[in-house]
Amino acid sequence: MGQPLSSSGNDGPDIRILDAAERLFMEHGYEATSTRMVTRDAAVNLAAVNYYFGSKEGLMQAVLRRRLDWLNRERLHLLDAAETEARGAPLKPSLIVDYFFGTLLRMGARPETGGQTFQRLLGRTHTEPAAFISTFLASEYADVVNRYKSALCRALPDVPREEIVWRFHFMLGATAYAITGTDSLQLITDWKMEEDVQVQAQKLLARLMSFLLGGLRAPLPQSRSA
Amino acid sequence: MGQPLSSSGNDGPDIRILDAAERLFMEHGYEATSTRMVTRDAAVNLAAVNYYFGSKEGLMQAVLRRRLDWLNRERLHLLDAAETEARGAPLKPSLIVDYFFGTLLRMGARPETGGQTFQRLLGRTHTEPAAFISTFLASEYADVVNRYKSALCRALPDVPREEIVWRFHFMLGATAYAITGTDSLQLITDWKMEEDVQVQAQKLLARLMSFLLGGLRAPLPQSRSA
DNA sequence: GTATCTTTCAAACGTTCGTTTAACTTCATG
DNA sequence: CATGAAGTTAAACGAACGTTTGAAAGATAC
Prior knowledge:
The structure is a homodimer. The radius of gyration of chain A is 19 Å and the shape is globular. With about 230 residues, chain A is mostly helical. Chain A has nine helices and no strands. Residues about 1-5 of chain A have low confidence and may be disordered. Chain A has a domain at about 65-215. At the A-B interface, helix 7, helix 8 and helix 9 of A face helix 7, helix 8 and helix 9 of B.
C-alpha cells in the first residue's frame, strides 16, 4: 500500500486536510473553496496547506491523486488479467465497459476509497475550467485511456477508430454527469431514502451499463444525409 | 422578438457586457471570472455590471436567460407542432430526442444564437456548484423537461417511467459533456481544422444522435442478478 | 542536556474581489 | 434654456483571498 486510503478519524494532519478538501471541493468546486475553509474543517492551522502541499493547486492535485492512482491501477490490472486470459482474442465490449466504468461506480459504494464524495468530485472535476486540472487529469489518464481505446477497437473491429473515440467520449460524459449527482434540473426526484448507498450504487451501475452498451453498439450514423 | 440575440458590434453597453460575460464565463467558469475582466473586455466602466444587472449573479442569470429562453421556447414549439400533427398518437423516440438535443446542437452552428460559445457555457453550467445556478436552471427547464419526459413515456410504453427519467439523465450528461468540448482527457485529438463549424456540428450531431438513441432503446437492466 | 530537525502557531503580507458612492456628463422633453 | 431622468465615471469601501514569515513548541539523536 503506497499511501493511506482511509480516514479512520485519528489520522495525521495531512490526511485530515485531504479529507476536508475532498468534501469541500466536491461541494463548492475548486475556485469557491478557500484554504481557510479547508483548514477550519480539518482543525489545523491556516499555514498547514502550504506546509504540506505547497499551494492550493498542490492540494487539489493531491486530493485527486490519492484516489485516481488506485482507480487507474485497478483498471489496468483488470484489463491486463482479462487480456492475458483471452490469449490475444478480443474481449467482450461489455467486459471492457464494466472494467472502466464499473470499477469507478463500485468504488463509490466503498467508504474506504472515498465513497460517493470522491465520485462526485471526480465527475465535477472533468469539467473544471482551470488549466492545471485539465493538464493533471490528462497525465493521470493517458495510459489507461489508450489501453482501453485499443481494447475497444479490437472488440469492435467493424467500428472505425474515430467512432470508438467519440463513443468513449459520450460514455464518459454520461458517467461523469451521473456520478456527480448534482441534478441541477431535478430530473431524479424519487431517491429511495431507505436504501443504503450500496444498493443505490448497484442499481445505478446496472442502469448506466445498459445505457452505455446500447450507445456503444448503436448502428453507425450514415455519413451522407440531409 | 423579445430581446436581441445578435452582437453586431455596435450594440449598447448591456449587450456588450452580455457578450463578454458569455465568453469569459465559458472559458474560466463563473467563480474564476471577475467583474473587472468582464467590464474590461466589454469596454465599459467597472460599475456597469451592477448598474445594468444588479450583481454578478444577476449578470450570470441574464447571460443564460438570453439564450435559454429562446432554446426552450423552440423546443416546446417543435414538440407542440409534432403532437398536434400526430393527433394523440405517440411520437417516434428519434424525433423527440432530435427536438430536444438536436435543437441545442444546431443552435451551436449559428453565430446569431451565440454559436459554440453559449453551447460550451451551457454544458459547463450544468455542473456549476453554485446554488443559485442550480435553482435558476431548474426553473428554466421545469416545463420543457416535464413535457419531454411525458412524450418519451408515451413513445416507449414498455419502459418504466423511472427508467425513462434515468436515461434522460444519461442523455443529458453525454450531451453536456460533448458540447463543452473541454476534452480534459484529450480523447479527441483529431479535430479537422479545415472543416468549418457547421460541418463539425453536423457530424457531432449525427454521432451523438446514434449514441443517444442506442442508449435510450437499450434492453432494460435485469433487476435481480449477481 | 544540548543540538538539530520537523511541525505548529499567530500575525501579517500584498492583492484582488464584488459592490457602493457621489460627482459628472448626456440628452430628450417641456 | 431649464429640468430631470438616464447613463457614465473615478475613487473608494470593507472583506476575503493565497501565501509568507519568524518565533514557539515538539520530537529525535547523540
